[in-house]
């Protein structure tokens, strides 16, 4: 993963520390649309939705001024459906290095032109969902041709050398035996990979959770192998503690201690604040403190361990340390020939 320049790293740590103390969110997820190009088996989105109440690009300015997040995830639905996405990113960044901005997308609508325009507007990291390292991805996402498109566009854009593309594989009972093959695919395409965990909270479907001792044994074996493949280049973007917590989450059937609403929150497409994408108690922009009092302090939900949680469940010192050494890739940049020679087998 591309390193974050030293001065920018210090800015992120500075703002993160202030937010932590002021009980403002570290990460904000902006769901810029509810519509989607896919209709995935594990998700509650899918197909077109009414976009008439969507926030306009300029509206995001006041959200950034009030919430002052360190990291923004631009998500959805499928964010690339917004024709004004570049403008939204420009407003989020307003010419500054912060917030560190991650576009979370299925990439069905990604092209070289859009990638370069979004980078130019300030996207720091492109998170690309990949559930299977082959055409089974189309079946799971219910979008024929998606895998073929990814297998063309991902390596083509990776070859530009910006090292800012990360595949995201959400672990389910369907693909748990494939997660190292997904890493092989990342390696083949010249990009990074990170893993997240399925929750049945979105759809109520427990079938994609890891329910049997056999599935859990496969998970342990696959994660051990993933751990062996991690190296200083940070091409597997999870920290070891996150992989370990992911295993515990599946084994225990949940993960307590969620800080939704406090350390992270969601801005819905129409501009309401929500603790997370699966809790629908809504607040206005200036009511985050009320959300913390009414929701976070009483929250007993332990039903997911999605990425946004996995980064922020930790203590402040641990989070700082992992950010310094891992998540935001603060490490010496390797020369291309060293990168090309790295072992990812
Ligand atoms: C909701 S999608 C929005 C962005 C974009 N449409 C995409 O798929 O990347 C964000 C992420 O949530 C993941 N996701 C969807 N349903 C999930 C579930 N039930 N449990 C865990 N992650 C889920 C997707 O795989 C994707 O990586
Ligand atoms: S996971 Fe993403 S691509 Fe799939 S239906 Fe949900 S929002 Fe759409
Ligand atoms: S564990 Fe937290 S982030 Fe996950 S669904 Fe429950 S409240 Fe939301």
Question: What's this, in brief?
Answer:
39% of the residues lie in helices and 12% in strands. It is an alpha/beta fold and 345 residues long.
Features:
binds iron/sulfur cluster; about 350 residues; binds S-adenosylmethionine; disordered C terminus
Describe the structure.
The protein is of the alpha/beta class. 39% of the residues lie in helices and 12% in strands. It contains 13 helices and eight strands. The protein has an eight-stranded mixed β-sheet. A hairpin with a 5-residue loop joins β7 (264-267) and β8. α3 runs parallel beside α4 (112-121). The longest helix is centred in the first third of the chain and has 17 residues, at 6-22. The two termini are 17 Å apart. The protein binds S-adenosylmethionine (SAM) and iron/sulfur cluster (2 copies). One iron/sulfur cluster is lined by residues 36, 38-40, 43, 45-46, 76-78, 106, 141.
């Amino acid at each position: 993963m591309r390193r974050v320049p030293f001065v920018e790293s210090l800015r992120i740590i500075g703002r993160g520390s202030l937010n932590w103390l002021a009980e403002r969110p570290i990460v904000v997820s902006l769901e810029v649309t509810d519509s989607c190009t896919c209709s995935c088996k594990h998700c509650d989105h899918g197909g077109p939705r009414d976009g008439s109440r969507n926030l306009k690009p300029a509206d995001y300015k006041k959200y950034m001024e009030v919430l002052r997040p360190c990291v923004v995830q631009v998500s959805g639905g499928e964010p690339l459906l917004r024709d004004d996405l570049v403008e939204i990113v420009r407003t989020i960044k307003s010419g500054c290095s912060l917030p560190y901005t991650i576009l979370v997308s299925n990439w069905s609508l990604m092209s070289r032109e859009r990638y370069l325009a979004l980078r130019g507007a300030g996207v720091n990291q492109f998170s690309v969902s990949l559930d299977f390292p082959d055409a089974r991805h189309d079946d799971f996402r219910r979008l024929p041709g998606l895998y073929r498109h990814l297998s063309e566009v991902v390596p083509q854009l990776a070859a530009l050398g910006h090292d800012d593309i990360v595949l995201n594989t959400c672990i389910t009972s369907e693909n748990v035996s494939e997660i190292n093959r997904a890493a092989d695919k990342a390696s083949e395409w010249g990009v990074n990979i990170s893993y997240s965990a399925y929750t049945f909270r979105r759809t109520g479907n427990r079938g994609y959770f890891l329910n049997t001792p056999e599935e859990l044994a496969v998970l342990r074996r696959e994660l051990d192998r993933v751990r062996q493949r991690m190296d200083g280049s940070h091409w597997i973007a999870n920290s070891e503690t996150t992989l370990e917590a992911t295993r515990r989450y599946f084994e225990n059937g949940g993960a307590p201690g969620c800080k939704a609403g406090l350390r992270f929150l969601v801005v819905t497409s129409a501009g309401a604040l929500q603790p997370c994408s699966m809790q629908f108690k809504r607040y206005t922009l200036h009511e985050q403190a009320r959300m913390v009092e009414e929701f976070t302090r009483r929250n007993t939900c332990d039903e997911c361990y999605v990425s946004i949680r996995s980064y922020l469940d930790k203590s402040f010192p641990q989070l700082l340390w992992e950010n310094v050494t891992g998540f935001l890739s603060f490490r010496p940049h390797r020369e291309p020939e060293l990168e090309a020679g790295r072992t990812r087998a």
